[in-house]
Write a structure and sequence with these properties.
Elements: E1 2-4, E2 7-13, H1 15-32, E3 39-44, H2 48-56, E4 63-73, E5 80-85, E6 95-103, H3 107-117, E7 123-131, E8 144-148, E9 154-155, E10 171-174
Parallel strand pairs: 3-4, 3-6, 6-7, 7-8
Antiparallel strand pairs: 1-2, 2-10, 4-5, 9-10
Helix pairs in contact: 1-2
Bound molecules: inosinic acid.
Length: 177
Amino acid sequence: MIQIKDKTFEVFIPEAGLAEKVAAVAERINRDYEGKNPVFVAVLNGSFMFAADLLKKIRIPCEITFVKVASYHAMHSTGKVKELIGLTEDLAGRHVVVVEDIVDTGITMEQILAQLRTHRPASVKTAVLLFKPEALQRDVPLDYVCFEIANRFVVGYGLDYDGYGRNLASLYVLREG
Ligand code: IMP
């Protein structure tokens, strides 16, 4: 058990369990993208550990780039718009694999995909560490999913609680009750 700020978390998926699934997903990508020279677009901050472990297991030629999602209130709109920042690569005609930590409502991924598609890539697929099916509100393609989990709050392995816990090697879940 660990304490982060005011909350207690317990181990949910240990480091070895994460490594095993991430390696298996990497193998599928190695097979599917043979000869395609994909560009992996990893979404910071949350995906940094997943992206590092996944990409160490990718053996085909590939490029890796990092983006951030910045939320802002758009004029004439009540909703928050999420903008992709830091994309410098030319993605036109490329096979893109988005690397994300978690798909919860799917709103973030939906907006990332919409913005990537304006660059006219040859294809776009998604690789996510975690997926919470019960929380999903958007129809987003999930091509490579390491773990489907219940709708509970998790930290570690890149994911944070109020900025803390990203450094933990295992995945932890909020203790209930
Ligand atoms: P979505 O837009 O609702 O799919 O949320 C995606 C983002 O919410 C992720 O990139 C995370 O930053 C954050 N998030 C969602 N669930 C969790 C969680 O259980 N722990 C930590 N961050 C989370």
